[in-house]
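Priority: medium. Attachment 1 of 2:
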């Protein structure tokens, strides 16, 4: 039986690959995609999500909802220099994307309700996969904490435990953008699985055979994913030296192949200040209260995870 999931995302090159991975995985059943401001502004991210769902063509209808346009208590910081001004490595020259942008203008702005409703309504525990700043998920926890405790888990791409940050030396992007939201989620009492930079920095696509394998598939999905990876690598978006780092697919990977990740248990806090430590994640001291420990991925069988992700993307399909 597949795990019902809600994917909260700020697409994003690696978000797009994570969504493609989830939709290609029969172990998962994607019930809803919710968008949050992060890599790009909310309108652009929602247009990207609509476009991705169209291209990836899941076999069942998936609810799409847009959420928070800015962090809980701060101004938005975006990452166009990492993902391109359109969030998708410049792919938006396509006519199909422009049409999708027009069509997604009216997507309901009820992502927070959508998360709560999907978690509450499902007879099977729903896993929330959070691939952007945690604003929507934290708002859902605040809106209905009891309903959210029915979630199987909240699987988060974010933070760094020992690794250097990617926005500041201490902070990873998703936690830096909305540290208050990250802290709310980590204190929520819902089981949380964190996939930090310690692991995602080990997962890179650095070889052009991946994009050519995808591009040679006889469908628009393969052509799109091949071109996305080619553009992202060529522009060196999201990595260095022609590498494309698989941050968000890694979070999906912890659900698909937990045996390939080394996990540690840590009660976690996130620095909510404005100084050098803004957004820094750290393992809380035992005397810092009764915060439930999160499962943190600290190491990974990197070659195996990258090749499984690539094989899934190439195979495509899945029940949607
Ligand atoms: C995270 O930040 C975003 O730019 C990526 O999409 C990923 O979710 C990596 O730090
Ligand atoms: Ca993301």
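Attachment 2 of 2:
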């Amino acid at each position: 039986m597949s795990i019902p999931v809600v994917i909260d995302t700020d697409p994003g090159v690696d978000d797009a690959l994570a969504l493609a991975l989830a939709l290609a995985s029969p172990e998962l059943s994607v019930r809803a995609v919710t968008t949050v401001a992060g890599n790009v502004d909310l309108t652009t991210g929602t247009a990207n999500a609509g476009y991705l769902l169209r291209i990836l063509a899941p076999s069942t209808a998936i609810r799409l909802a847009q959420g928070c346009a800015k962090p809980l208590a701060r101004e938005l910081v975006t990452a166009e220099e990492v993902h391109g001004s359109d969030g998708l490595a410049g792919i938006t020259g396509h006519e199909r994307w422009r049409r999708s942008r027009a069509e997604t203008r009216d997507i309901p702005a009820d992502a927070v309700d959508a998360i709560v409703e999907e978690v509450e309504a499902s007879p099977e525990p729903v896993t929330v996969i959070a691939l952007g700043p945690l604003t929507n998920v934290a708002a859902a926890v605040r809106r209905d904490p009891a309903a959210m405790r029915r979630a199987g888990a909240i699987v988060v791409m974010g933070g760094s435990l020992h690794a250097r940050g990617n926005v500041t030396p201490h902070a990873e992007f998703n936690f830096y953008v909305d540290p208050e939201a990250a802290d709310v989620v980590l204190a929520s009492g819902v089981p949380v699985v964190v996939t930090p930079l310690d692991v995602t920095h080990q997962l890179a696509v650095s070889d052009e055979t991946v994009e050519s394998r995808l591009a040679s598939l006889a469908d628009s999905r393969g052509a799109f994913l091949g071109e996305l990876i080619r553009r992202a690598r060529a522009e060196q978006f999201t990595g260095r030296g022609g590498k494309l780092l698989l941050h968000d697919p890694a979070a999906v990977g912890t659900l698909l192949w937990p045996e390939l990740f080394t996990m540690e248990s840590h009660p976690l806090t996130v620095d909510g200040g404005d100084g050098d430590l803004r957004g820094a994640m750290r393992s809380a001291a035992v005397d810092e209260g009764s915060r439930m420990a999160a499962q943190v991925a600290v190491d990974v069988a990197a070659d195996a995870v990258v090749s499984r992700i690539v094989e899934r993307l190439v195979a495509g399909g899945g029940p949607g």
